[in-house]
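Minutes, project huddle
Topic: does the predicted pose make sense with phosphoenolpyruvate bound?
PN asked that the exact inputs be recorded in the minutes so nobody has to dig through chat later. Recorded below.
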Amino acid sequence: MKYVIGNWKSNQNLTESLVWIDGIHALKPKFSPDVSVILCLPFTDIAGFNHKLSDLNLPIITGAQNVSHLPPGKHTGEITANMLSELINYCIVGHSERRRDFGETSEMVAEKAKSLLENAITPIVCLDLPYLDEQIKELFQKNIDVSRCFFVYEPLAAIGTGRPLTPTEINHTTNQIGFLIDNSAPILYGGSVTADNVKSFVDQGRIDGVLVGTDSLEPTLFAGIINSLS
Ligand code: PEP
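Predicted holo structure (tokens), as shared on screen:
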């Protein structure tokens, strides 16, 4: 199985997200049983988006982009894994933007992953070289079953820059991640993935799919990525 995961970040309100679905529906990308398409949305879009996906019978699975590291309780404004469990199957944790802008630590990321797994949601754990070892060690320290997670190598220099790493450079690190987790889970790459370059990454031995930021926002570009892999 190969995976295409979109990450909308803080873009698109509910109305705009429903227009996006109309766009994808009209483009009729080639959804293949060998390619799983997952879209990680803002919290505010998820319920309405799911509704429309099922009305149109579109094979897109939804995810979130963050979750509280705290359990349910007195934490005003926090969205817990329990709240998300009725809405999504996947959730990104530890994106470099959250580490940079919100002070997320490897320990918090591990707490998030634990809480997601307790609620039957697959954590999509983002990694970059400066904290790759530390993050994986923290998951093991919290007794997290890494075989139930997804991992994404997201080199900072490639995110949103239009300058992806080469497949050989990526493979070096995805092999390293594979070694640390005993090759027990999918390992993806994220950073300036487009319809033109996606195949060069996914054809490599240790890359099971891609995480796409910028090009997931435009139906034409995202459909192009799905078509390139199908
Ligand atoms: C990301 O931020 O997760 C990402 C992969 O972004 P982009 O595709 O824009 O590089």
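Observations noted during the meeting:
- The chain has a mean pLDDT of 97.
- Residues 7, 154, 159-160, 190-193, 211-214 surround phosphoenolpyruvate (CB under 6 Å).
No decisions taken; revisit at the next huddle.
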